[in-house]
Amino acid sequence: MAYWLFKSEPLVWGWVDQVAKGDLGEEWDGVRNYQARNFMRDMEIGDLGFFYHSQKEKAVVGIVEVMAQAHPDSTTDDERWECVDIKAVKALKTPVTLDQIKAREELAEMVLVKNSRLSVQPVTNAEWDVVCQMGGL
Questions:
Q1: Strand pairing partners for 64?
Q2: What H or E segment, with its residue span, contains residue 85?
Q3: Is the pTM above the cut of 0.90?
Q4: pLDDT for 43
Q5: How many domains does the chain have?
Q6: Do 72 and 82 touch, CB atoms closer than 8 A?
Q7: What phi and psi values does residue 114 have, to the nearest 5 degrees?
Q8: 128 lies in which domain range?
Q9: pLDDT tens figures, 7-45
Q10: Cβ contacts of residue 26 below 8 Å, gap of 6+?
Q11: How far apart are CA 109 and CA 35, in angstroms?
Q12: Residues of the chain with confidence (pLDDT) below 70
């Protein structure tokens, strides 16, 4: 199993929206960055990811599961763009902010710290464990 982080603007698509989709899940569509698209191509069904609210909140708020491997993004006819489907698994007991992540020495190399603009990114096993612990899981 691999771990990931999915960033979204909460006013566009937030944790509440993801949870409302239930077991049907939702396409993680609209990604127009080659590196982020390539990460989605690497995902397997059952992989887990952090759901991260960008913009003002800047916090990991929940955990999602990949439920469909990369497929054409339904929001475009451009064959270059693909996406995965994800469903909400659980909310963190306590959101973990970007500032809290940056304050932890063991998370200094996390992609979120190094390249906070990337909308889909990998998370190492060790980083996953630390952020889950910080979030009360």
A1: 49, 88
A2: strand 82-97
A3: yes
A4: 98
A5: 1
A6: yes
A7: -80, -35
A8: 3-134
A9: 999 989 999 999 999 999 999 999 999 999 999 999 999
A10: 13, 17, 18, 85, 86, 87
A11: 18
A12: none
